[in-house]
Amino acid sequence: MNKLKTSTSTLMLIFGIILPLLTLGIELTTAMCADTFFDPIPTFVHVLLVGAVPLANLWIWKAVSQGDATHLSKLGLANGFALGIAGFYTLIFLPLLPLGAIGIIIYGLGFLVMAPLFSLLTAFTCYRHLKMQRRKVPGVRWGFALALLILVALGLPMGITQLGLHMAAEDSSETNGIRLLRAVGNRDLMLEACYKRPSLN
């Protein structure tokens, strides 16, 4: 396997591994993004998914830095997973990227907003180097599909809860909506909807 250039390796380590881990730690301890914009890690599973990206990048970075292609299939699986998760978070943070660019200039905090993008770029760079070893890297598609499957599974209860809340608010479907919420409704989302409900006074 072709080894990474020193400059590329350093940039990947700083921006694609250390920065995302630092960002995750800051968000867990301060809830900065959750309090200001939205909660990017609402559940423990989300925390694991986000944390898995820099760890996957670290593993692949180490392998390509050493020119080690011993576990290419596993590396491809991890890379596909990192691409899927990092790609998803890059999309949801996309509207904040201009703000992040300004934040870099002013306070340097913009790096935190751009961490998903840096993670994605690092994962893609890892993929390119894995592809130098073999034209079709095994495991990448499976890893990417697994990431999407988990993200869909996490989002499905919230989507169903929103549907149930909408049905419960309609006289014609109120009973079915309540049944749906009792069966699979997300408790936190239902409580949030109750708090946001307009006062009758």
Which stretches are poorly predicted, pLDDT < 50 over at least 5 residues?
A: none
- Count of helical regions: 10
| Strand elements, count | 0
Shape call: globular
Quick recap:
Helices cover 79% and strands 0% of the residues. By secondary structure, it is an all-alpha fold.
Fold and architecture overview:
It is a single chain. By secondary structure, the protein is mainly alpha-helical. It has two domains: 6-138; 155-196. It is built from ten helices and no strands. It has helices at residues 6-30, 32-36, 44-66, 72-93, 97-106, 110-113, 115-133, 140-168, 174-184, 187-196. 29% of the residues are buried.
Secondary-structure topology with pairs:
Layout: H1 6-30, H2 32-36, H3 44-66, H4 72-93, H5 97-106, H6 110-113, H7 115-133, H8 140-168, H9 174-184, H10 187-196
Feature tags:
mainly alpha, transmembrane, 201 residues, 79% helix, 10 helices, single chain
